[in-house]
């Protein structure tokens, strides 16, 4: 058994110790994971963003325009200094504005228009009819301008049924993915670490 397997097994057991109660071993493993993750992403960000897009263009190519995003990025760190924290709002405004301008049309296309197109597609198959029925009845549940009586009430009740199917499937998928992670860790501990199973 190599050292990496031993360390991974010990840290896995530290994480599993939370099943008993909150303890220092669990906290150590948790803080170690967060610290290593943050350190790793800082190094990756510096290596893939700061150096090739700020340091090299400014100092090797003399492109002083790259200093503008560098200064705006530096402003983000001024949040730690109360007297200069207002400068970080400039960077935040640009990030939020540009991010919204880029992401809103893409999200509308990917999540709204594409789903509307799929929902209003060909009704030749039973699947498309069920999807259209689910969309219409679920939307009718959220129609609050009228009391849910008569046809609207029946439609709303069917919409609740479809929502419960969705929530149940989502919950089942979440449980299944967590159990898969547990099985993977158990196989690692019993196979790679202890050698009980192959």
Low-confidence stretches: none
Give the number of DSSP strands. Answer: 0
Number of helices: 6
* Rg of Cα set: 27 Å
Average pLDDT figure:
92
Give the SSE order as H and E letters. Answer: HHHHHH
What would you call the shape?
Answer: flat
The N- and C-terminal alpha carbons lie at a distance of 14 Å
Structural class: mainly alpha
Helical residues, percent: over 70%
Query: Which strand-content bin applies to the residues?
Result: under 5%
Biggest sheet architecture? none
Report on the architecture of this protein.
By secondary structure, the chain is mainly α. It has a domain of 77 residues. The longest helix has 44 residues.
Secondary-structure map:
Elements: H1 3-16, H2 24-59, H3 67-76, H4 88-119, H5 126-141, H6 150-193
Search tags:
198 residues; mainly alpha; 77% helix
Short summary:
The chain is mostly helical.
């Amino acid at each position: 058994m190599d050292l990496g397997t031993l360390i991974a097994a010990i840290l896995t057991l530290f994480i599993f110790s939370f099943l008993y109660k909150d303890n220092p071993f669990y906290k150590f493993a948790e803080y170690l994971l967060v610290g290593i993750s943050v350190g790793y992403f800082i190094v990756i960000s510096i290596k893939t963003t700061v150096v090739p897009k700020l340091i090299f263009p400014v100092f090797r190519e003399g492109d002083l325009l790259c200093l503008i995003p560098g200064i705006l990025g530096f402003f983000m760190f001024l949040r730690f200094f109360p007297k200069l924290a207002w400068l970080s709002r400039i960077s935040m405004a640009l990030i939020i504005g540009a991010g919204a301008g880029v992401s809103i049309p893409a999200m509308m296309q990917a999540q709204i228009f594409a789903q509307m197109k799929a929902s209003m597609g060909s009704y030749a198959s039973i699947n498309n009819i069920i999807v259209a029925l689910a969309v219409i009845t679920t939307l009718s549940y959220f129609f609050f301008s009228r009391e849910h009586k008569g046809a609207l009430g029946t439609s709303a009740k069917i919409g609740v049924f479809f929502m419960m199917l969705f929530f149940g499937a989502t919950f089942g998928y979440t449980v299944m993915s967590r159990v898969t992670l547990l099985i993977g860790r158990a196989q690692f501990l019993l196979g790679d670490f202890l050698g009980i199973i192959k």
